[in-house]
Amino acid sequence: MKDALLRATGISVRRHGRLTLQPTDFPVRSGETVGIYGPNGAGKSTLLQALAGLLPLSSGTITVRGQVLGKDLTPFAYHRRIAAVFQEPLLLRGTVVHNVGLGLALRGVGKSEREARVRPVLEQLKIVDLADRTIAMLSGGEAQRVSLARALVLDPEVLFLDEPFAALDQPTRRRLVREFAELLRTRRMATVFVTHDIAEASLLCDRCAVLDAGAILQDEVPAQVLERPQTQRVAEIVGRENVFRSSVSRDSNASSG
Amino acid sequence: MSPGSWDYWAEIGQGFVDAVVLLVTGDPETWAIIRQSLLISISATLASMVLGVPLGAWLAHTRFPGRGVVLAICNTGFGLPPVVVGLILSILLLRNGPLGYLNLRFTPTAMIVGQFILSLPIVINLTVVALQQLNPKLRLQIRALGASRWQTLWLLGREIRLPLLVAYMAGFGAVVSEVGASQMLGGNLPGSTRVLTTAIVMETGMGHYDRAMAYGIVLLILVALVVGLLTWAQQNDGHR
């Protein structure tokens, strides 16, 4: 097994006296897209935020290319190497260009270089026309494209996505997921992707961890999780969504035909 | 002179005309008072922003025992009676009081301190409210973007710049128009601690309605400017 780019060992998170994340081991290898899938309240976002160094851990360590987070590597330095997109676009006051270039500006990248790097990402996400719009004038789907662009332009070592498509309407969501799957295939960056939609998980992910009550129940390729759930609970969790899956795949056949 | 009589209205009308003349001819005494008023109240409010905004940011993001009490005190500060602030500071600044050695009584500095204390809770409170209305995940997103502590503060400040302007204006509006603390701490000394409000009280007492009205007009114009600026900022906020 190739050594992991990011490795969590025995990490747990306690919130209000309750363990929202049980001691968990979780590797992310370079170029790999890992899904974190589970029902609401399973602790998916907690695991993602813990891996992204955005939450204090109750136990365990996170190692990034052999460096221990909090010892050899400060959270600040770590955050300069990753990027995150959340369910809400969380844009800041200003134009689309300002937002997409924000991470670069924080890293001290000059204006002309910023523009040169922002442009291709705007093209990739099909938002060039929106470049000079203020964020108040964007639709939900457009805003989420801006948020994705803001993360991608940083060329992060690990990209963290916390249900980035969940708040979008169905047609927008389907289009964006498909485009994003293509993007991930070409860029091959390590990605951690939280979703409660098994169709999204199987479309986007190389590996899928099924999370329930703060613990990982199974962590394998999506097909394996879907067809050979190891426990009844996993079957229940993924099974409920199977209905969902068939309707989505019918739709993708229709549009490709 | 009965309220309905011609003489009464003629005198009031004349006072109004004289007031306008005083303002447009650049009467030195009038302008000295306006200048002191602006100088003292703007400095006091600026100082309360310098301390109040970071304090408000800290209160908004830190949980500690007694936090509720501190917030309650800031809320009370909204209704802090200026005369009481004037009284307490006056006692402290008395010649043989604990701060008497500073020799600040009846100086513009004493007035700035008093007005600073009056506007500080307003600024703290409005900062806390503004920050708590932001999406809590925004801080997470900003951190994940690789912002340093200072960059985070800067970006959050940028997000709440309109509420911060409101805070400044609310503080300024409150202190420029208060009279109790200014009178007690400044003493209405011409050319130094005489400001619009204390001058209005004095001139009215002396029967100089033209001057009192001139100062009243200026005070109203100042308040109108404050309100106008706020309205303009709110109207234009969505577009930038």
Q: Could you give the topology of this structure?
A:
The complex is a heterodimer of chains A (257) and B (240).
Chain A: E1 6-15, E2 18-28, E3 33-37, H1 44-51, E4 59-64, E5 67-68, H2 75-79, E6 82-85, H3 96-100, H4 102-106, H5 111-124, H6 140-152, E7 158-162, H7 170-187, E8 190-195, H8 198-204, E9 207-212, E10 215-220, H9 222-227, H10 232-256
Parallel strand pairs in A: 3-8, 3-9, 6-7, 7-8
Antiparallel strand pairs in A: 1-2, 1-4, 4-5, 9-10
Helix pairs in contact in A: 5-6
Chain B: H1 6-24, H2 28-61, H3 67-77, H4 82-93, H5 108-133, H6 137-144, H7 149-159, H8 161-176, H9 180-186, H10 196-206, H11 209-236
Tell me what the structure shows.
The complex is a heterodimer of chains A (257) and B (240). Chain A is of the alpha/beta class. Chain A has one domain: Rossmann fold (3-Layer(aba) Sandwich). Chain A contains ten helices and ten strands. Chain A has helices at 44-51, 75-79, 96-100, 102-106, 111-124, 140-152, 170-187, 198-204, 222-227, 232-256; strands at residues 6-15, 18-28, 33-37, 59-64, 67-68, 82-85, 158-162, 190-195, 207-212, 215-220. In chain A, the strands form two sheets. Chain A has a six-stranded mixed beta sheet, with helices on both faces. A four-stranded antiparallel beta sheet of chain A has the order 2-1-4-5, with helices on one face. In chain A, helix 5 (111-124) crosses helix 6. The radius of gyration of chain A is 18 Å and the shape is globular. With 240 residues, chain B is mainly alpha-helical. Chain B has one domain (9-234): Orthogonal Bundle (MetI-like fold), CATH 1.10.3720. Chain B is 76% helix and 0% strand. Chain B is built from eleven helices and no strands. In chain B, helix 3 (67-77) crosses helix 5 (108-133), helix 5 (108-133) packs antiparallel against helix 8 (161-176) and helix 8 runs antiparallel to helix 11 (209-236). The chains are: A alpha/beta (257), B mainly alpha (240). At the A-B interface, helix 2, strand 6 and helix 4 of A face helix 6 and helix 7 of B.
